[in-house]
Amino acid sequence: MGSELILDKEYKEWLSALKLKVRTAQIKAALTVNTELLNLYWEIGADIVAKQTNAKWGSGFLPHLSKDLTAEFPDMKGFSLSNLKYIKQWYLFYSQENSIGQQAVAQLAGSDQPDLKSQQTDRVPSRKS
What we know:
Layout: H1 2-54, H2 61-72, H3 81-94, H4 104-109, H5 116-123
């Protein structure tokens, strides 16, 4: 019976560690998805601004774009006319600084994160001549 308690304790510890790994992976995946969506919306905003400079006044460019994107990607939300207008406004507001800035993950993490590039180069074994 003593070995069953040890196995139960070991199993519970292992299960806790496994749950932590799953949750960590879920958070990383969500951050990656959010970063990619931000980049997509940034590019869409830039494209809308560029295309609207050449579009004729009253041509219905944005409503038409909204309809086409919604038809092509019916399961994806965010292509309504009002959202496309928000994407354009967001791009115009932040493009005044000419850059979207660091990746969202880096902005959330702050500057206390280790510099992974320097750690990688420190680990590279040096060749002996």
